[in-house]
């Protein structure tokens, strides 16, 4: 697990946001999330110019275990995507907070940034190598992720259907 940089803010669903200071926010998934998903094999990124809405699905990451929706932490317009992830999605596994960024949003409502968690408010499990969950008992004890995450998680069948739908033969 890598150290969580101090300049990041998070959604509870494991997406991070780095405020760039020019009205733009770079977005990716947490190192904790990529570690639980395992080896990533496919990333579906939004189109440049697409409209992102805070807390709504905007991208998908797929691993050898499962697939998961990625939610935008802020509202705005997608101005850049990390197209290198199309050929090398494992970059997220290797450097989740650096080269593994996914897309950049030009923020339309900067007040939404105040609703995100800072490094000191993220769950303890994100910061340690421990497999013990810091979430309450009603959440999935196996990986420590909330039930809402597992509802969004696709099964192997869903992954293969997504690959077929996108014409990907390596699934």
Strand order of the largest sheet: 5-8-9-3-2-1-10
SS-derived structural category: alpha+beta
- What's the SSE pattern? EEEHEEEEEHHEEHHH
Distance between the amino and carboxyl termini: 27 Å
Mean pLDDT: 78
Shape: globular
Radius of gyration: 15 Å
Question: Mind describing the biggest β-sheet?
Answer: 7 strands, antiparallel
Helix share bin: 10-25%
The helix tally amounts to 6
Low-confidence stretches: 128-157
User: What is the count of β-strands?
Assistant: 10
Provide a compact summary of the structure.
This protein is an alpha+beta fold. The protein has helices at about 30-35, 85, 90-95, 125, 145-150, 155-165, and strands at about 10, 15-20, 25-30, 40-45, 50, 55-65, 65-70, 75-80, 105, 115-120. The longest helix is centred in the C-terminal third of the chain and has 10 residues, at about 155-165.
List the helices and strands and how they pair.
Elements (H helix, E strand, L loop, with lengths): L7 E3 L4 E5 L4 E6 L1 H7 L2 E5 L6 E2 L4 E7 L3 E5 L4 E6 L2 H4 L3 H4 L8 E5 L9 E2 L5 H4 L19 H6 L3 H10 L6
Antiparallel strand pairs: 1-2, 1-10, 2-3, 3-9, 4-6, 5-8, 6-7, 8-9
Explain this structure to me?
With 171 residues, the chain is an alpha+beta fold. It has six helices and ten strands, in the order βββαβββββααββααα. Strands 5-8-9-3-2-1-10 form a seven-stranded antiparallel sheet. Strands 4-6-7 form a three-stranded antiparallel sheet. It is globular.
Features:
alpha+beta, seven-stranded antiparallel β-sheet, three-stranded antiparallel β-sheet
């Amino acid at each position: 697990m890598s150290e969580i940089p101090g300049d990041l803010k998070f959604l509870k669903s494991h997406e991070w946001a780095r405020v760039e200071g020019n009205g733009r926010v770079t977005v990716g998934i947490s190192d904790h999330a990529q570690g639980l998903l395992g080896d990533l094999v496919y990333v579906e990124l939004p189109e440049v110019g697409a409209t992102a809405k805070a807390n709504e699905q905007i991208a998908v990451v797929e691993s050898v275990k499962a697939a998961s929706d990625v939610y935008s932490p802020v509202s705005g317009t997608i101005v850049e995507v990390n197209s290198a992830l199309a050929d090398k999605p494992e970059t997220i596994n290797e450097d989740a907070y650096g080269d593994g960024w996914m897309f950049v949003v030009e923020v339309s409502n900067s007040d939404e940034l105040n609703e995100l968690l800072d490094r000191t408010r993220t769950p303890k499990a994100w910061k340690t190598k421990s497999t013990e969950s810091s979430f309450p008992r009603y959440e999935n004890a196996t990986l420590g992720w909330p039930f809402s995450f597992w509802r969004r998680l696709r099964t192997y069948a869903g992954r293969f259907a997504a690959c077929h739908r996108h014409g990907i033969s390596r699934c």
